[in-house]
Amino acid sequence: MAGITTYADYKAGLLEYTLSCTFAFGNGNTSHQANSFGSTHVRQRLGGAPSASVALSSASAGALMYLPTSNAKTMWITSFEYAFGNGGAGAKNAPSLYDRLVHQGGLVANSTSVQTTNLPTAALPRYTTGEGVQAFIECYSGIGAVNTTATISYTNQAGTAGQTSQPFVVSSSNFGPDALLPVTLAAGDTGVRSVESFTMLASAASGGNLGIVLMKKICSGPVDNGSYHERQGYRTMIFAGGPREVLPGACLDLVVTGNSGATGPYVWAGRIGITER
Amino acid sequence: MGTITDFSDLIAVGTASTAQHIEFSVDNRVGSAAATIGAALQTISIWRYNKTNGAQGVAPTSVTAPDRTTLGAIGQANATPGKELKLLSMMAMASFAPGGAVTLYDRLLHIGGLNATTITAQTVGGSITRNTGGENNQIWVEINSQIGSTARTITASYTNQAGTASKTTVAVNFGGTGYREAERMFRLPLADGDTGVQSVQNVTISASTGGAGDFGVVILRPIAQVFMAGPGFGASRDFVSDSTPVTIPEDACLALYFSAMASSPARFDFSLHLAEK
User: Fold this and answer.
1) Are A139 and A172 in contact (CB under 8 A)?
2) Vertex B224, ends A231 and B100: CA angle to 5°?
3) How far apart are CA A273 and CA B6, in angstroms?
4) Which of A72, A147, B152, B169 has its CA 20 to 30 A from that of A94?
5) Closest chain B residue to A189 measured between Cα atoms?
6) How many helices (H) and strands (E) does chain B have?
7) What confidence tens digit (pLDDT) does each residue in A72-82 have?
8) Closest by alpha carbon to A105, among A151, A50, A48, A150?
């Protein structure tokens, strides 16, 4: 992995090669939910709800930006800017940038059986050991009334199959379309290589459409006060722990961490800057 | 060794293959159960909270000096021999948590299994293996399972940073609402003039709280704080431009506590960005 060794090198990288992605979303979906664990939301999906498990790349529908699928050099995220505006719901939400690795759908909330539909998940296309890879439950269509917990069975970063996650709360009051629930792992596990099954402790009134998503976080842009129109986050990654490597073909995806109780349309925009050395 | 000399140096260490970007989410659950809701102006131990990187600890029994490999530690890698590990940046982002401060600390020694009905001195003992001079070390009480409802006080007998034994902390509340629930932590103020702790001989409660529960003692050294204004908010601490990179001791048992502004579950994303020099 090539590093950027000096400030001159860094500047040269910016001048010689920069990929820039500006993004803007908003107002299309009033059913976004907040207030779940993680209160996380995918951006407005462009690719539709998946069914069979597929490995994702920058060419996949819904990827935030195109990245070359092979590169002799190393790509680095050097800047991440973000602004959020919301006209009515009062949400003040902070974004995180992930590499979306694998997803699938077709799971339901109205069953207490061990569900294996469209599982196991496809092999990871990047971060293939699973170290640092996080599992999420994603909601593609709303579930019926329920307030319970669920678990997944997964293979950990060491290749040990049959691991059971910690129980995580699934509640219809805060888990609606486009919401994501982070899955907490068994003690000592530091990542997920694949997911084999999903199990609800209690059944919801209706099933909805849920899926498993495996992602690797790249960086976050926390918002630090109450304004709707913050220009926050890592304007330059140098002062946020260093430029962050992004792998060739990464399927970049933005996830919002929401404030409590806020639902409604989002209006947000920003920019990601990538260079290579 | 240990000094980041200029901007080029910062970029080099931040993009080196030895840079570490540790990202995880914290759920307000301990194992299969919901954690006790945090109380306003109280501190919550995150040691046993479920996490997406599996870094949930267990209540200690006998006295031990934990390190980075202890279950519950964040689990960073040590710097290569001859170099030091530097904290460049850390971030906390509340998903469903009240405002408050997340503190990163080195957990130097811990013990559990103490009884909140025992009115005689209960032995702590043990030896710390990092920051052994004791300067800036603190003594905390940690509740592992709920103790009695009668408000009492607790003190510790300790050896200060100068090696003077049999010093006594200032008495603080212990037992009763807000001071009895699992995962509560309270700091025991040192005697006037003392600036650190080398060891704790024992702890003594003023009278029985009426319920044995399970509590313990932790010797820790705070490293850094980051403040979250409330749900949907967070902050990134930059130890390069607003202070100076903090050296993380070899084998440090990095862990978190959360000082809450209001009564609410504590769920948040957290990240550490480390480099070696």
Assistant:
1) no
2) 60
3) 23
4) A147
5) B54
6) 1, 18
7) 888 999 888 77
8) A50
